[in-house]
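[audit] Reproducing an earlier prediction to check determinism. Same input, same settings, fresh worker. If the tokens differ from the archived copy the diff job will pick it up downstream; this log only records the rerun itself.
[audit] input (454 residues):
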Amino acid sequence: MAGKKNIVYFCSECGYESSKWMGQCPSCGAWNSFTEQVQEKLSRSGEKKAREAIVKTINEIISDDEDRTITGIEEFDRVLGGGIVKGSLVLVGGDPGIGKSTLLLQVSRELSHKHKKILYVSGEESLRQIKLRADRMGQFSDNLLLLSETDLSVIDGVIRKIKPDMVVIDSIQTMYNDSVNSAPGSVSQVRESTAVLMQLAKGLNVTIFVVGHVTKEGMVAGPRILEHMVDTVLYFEGDRHASYRILRSVKNRFGSTDEIGVFEMRNSGLREVINPSEFMLDGRAEEGSGSICTCQMEGTRPILMEVQALVTRSNFGMPRRTAAGMDYNRVNLLMAVLEKRWGFKLSDFDAYVNIAGGIRVTEPAIDLAVCLSIISSYKDINIDRYTVAFGEVGLGGEVRSVTFPDQRVKEAAKLGFKKVILPYSNLKNISDNDIEIIPVKTVRDVINPGGGLC
């Protein structure tokens, strides 16, 4: 049926649609990001489609458990919620060079050894380049099939012909759908290509992993609707110049979004870090002021890390405040509490707070450790290196309770720590452990003699 062509404008950064060109996107604020697209409006017979639709009551639908496939990479399976769900569409994003393709190639390798047929489609690398990268990882099975193609109609035909168990698309920005009159990587191409892959995943019950490029803000490039269409969104984080990598789920229809997976980049590929706490504390100094360990929860996993602070007198009228690994405004708030409630004259001092290991922390449970590290550096007092502190600090200086206190204490005891400073209100949730427990109600309780600071 002939359609009427309509000119619309899309923001290439966020996918905002407008009937006219605009210099700045009102949604994301990007400048000169609108591109012209041609849409076709097709008239559809809604009455005919309604007659063909199948409607069932909720009790008529049989709900079986998800059919999951264990990859053998424990950290990867944990983030997905226990393994790969058949028929799911998974989006994997991350900075260039962070290891997205390496991770998916390793997953393909593990599954190919389990007699699963895997199709790896690359629109960015030739088959020889993929082979060179694969040779560093070890031996591969013949169940892994490679295809270097960007035409989505060809990829569609290959998937329907060979019927693989899993497909990897690297990357969605290079795919080209000839039914859409726009360049590869544009908003329309990304949206329509993802729609085709979603129909393939659901119709053929095949798992499809899609690699997505990210913008300078760290979001997946293309329309925001891309993340709504897929079942799971994974982000691969970390400094590309450092060895560690963190796989985090921000959307998961088949599991929790609180779990993370920790990997270490090596010449042979990515290696799982089974004990992230030991990895984060590696290389810790034997003694020195301004350092204390804390514990944060990532899903059901407690992770110990070192909080460092350096407080030094400022040579300028405006003291500097720097926070690496945590919210800068949170550090300013905690320093204001210390200055107002207990008279620490920090307004004349520069303060630098760092979460060692490069991990990003958003949980307020590290507040108490940040306060103690700042006080330790300010007064030049060494804290016992076998001490762990956690608790949220309020504006009145009170130490408030946190979640999963018993798991945090057990993790500290397992790694050889001898003393834990925690909120008094969490004391009732702690089971017997071979570790000294110091409950506190305010930060003053820690500062006073016998409070555990020294």
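[audit] rerun output stored. Observation attached for the diff report: The first strand starts at residue 4 and ends at 11.
[audit] end
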